[in-house]
Amino acid sequence: xxxxxxxxxxxxxxxxxxxxxxxxxxxxxxELLVGTCCGCCVPMxxxxxxxxxxxxxxxxxxx
Length: 63
Known about the structure:
By secondary structure, the chain is mostly helical. The chain has helices at about 10-20, 25-30, 40-60; strands spanning about 1-5, 10.
């Protein structure tokens, strides 16, 4: 699904970047330019970051 229409960025690209260590909205903006034009997608990008960090925390606690 498209997250950032302005820069043609899909959720899969964001998830892949986060798996490679790009783990903040600012870092995703630097890497993928997501949220750097109109900014409408920033709340969705933040939700994806929060989801990723929550999953990462659960994975660590269950290890």
